[in-house]
Amino acid sequence: MMNNWPVTFLWPQLLWLLLALPMLVLLYVWLLRRRKQVALRYASLSIVREAMGKGPGWRRHLPPVLLLLAIALMLLAASRPMASIVLPSNQQTIILAMDVSGSMRAEDVKPNRLVASQNAAKAFLAELPRHVKVGIVAFAGSAQVVQPVTLSREDLLAAIDKFQLQRATAIGSAIVVSLSELFPDQRINLADLTYSRNADPFAPKGRSLDQPRGEEKPFTPVAPGSYSSAAIILLTDGQRTTGVDTAEAAKMAADRGVRVYTVGVGTVDGEIIGFEGWSMRVRLDEESLKDVARTTQAEYYYAGTAENLKKVYETLSSRLTVEKKETEVSGLLALAASLLALLSAGLSVLWFNRIL
Q1: For domain 89-197+219-304, which CATH number applies: 3.65.10.10, 3.90.1150.30, 3.10.20.30, 3.40.50.410?
Q2: How far lies 221's CA from each of 201, 253, 280, in Å?
């Protein structure tokens, strides 16, 4: 495969056939001269000009030029060109994992971080195509599915409106719960990951008591970012304080090919907030979020204001509904070649009552 051009070819050796095009041009010029010589044998040049009247001019050459272009496109199509083009995404499911920890009450993002994230999420849902399913995971000290994957935008909006603030931030747990929602057959168990670190490493995880061990299917990791049917959008404003390690959870997502797009909201330097007699400094851990995005072949976005947060979600909406893919375009070239050949023949019949 040729790799030095924006367009690559699966069969580049067939491009040598393009060298036949100059030969066709020379053949066309030779035929024109030969026709002229034949005409001059039967009459003087002045009589021929008088009989023919005004010559066809550029119209004589247009059909052959169009045919030559059609042949060139056919030869290119035979080389099976590949190009990166924008196509509708295969994304069928998106999980919104949203932080509802106490730090989301901070008002550095107006009116506060929680309300800004809720409004942005609602706008995001409005932009998504109706065939895309969405689920919502809320996380603070723990993570839970507050709305299973559904097509109902009304149910999703209602779940977003019911967010309640809690203490602590379990970012890794949010990723694990999101994966369990995407892959219910894999029996991903958050409790096993959180509380069974010192248990028998060979003990089966997420297995019901009456399920024989032989029924478990071994898990085979796939390439990061290769699962194109679903994605996770993780929004948080703080650092992990409890739950599954964020890096371990990101590795779980990467092993399943799921991209985790991370959105950081709030201040990187941190802010002191107080509630019901207690106070704490909340700081955005950008590096961890960047690592999650990098590990899963996704992207990290920072949203320091409510307007920026909306723009981030708009970007994600576009990013998840269309994607660039390297696709074979020989069919398009063959179609263009056919149209040029038909146009060439049609003009020749219209102007000269013959095909070329």
Answers
A1: 3.40.50.410
A2: 19, 10, 40
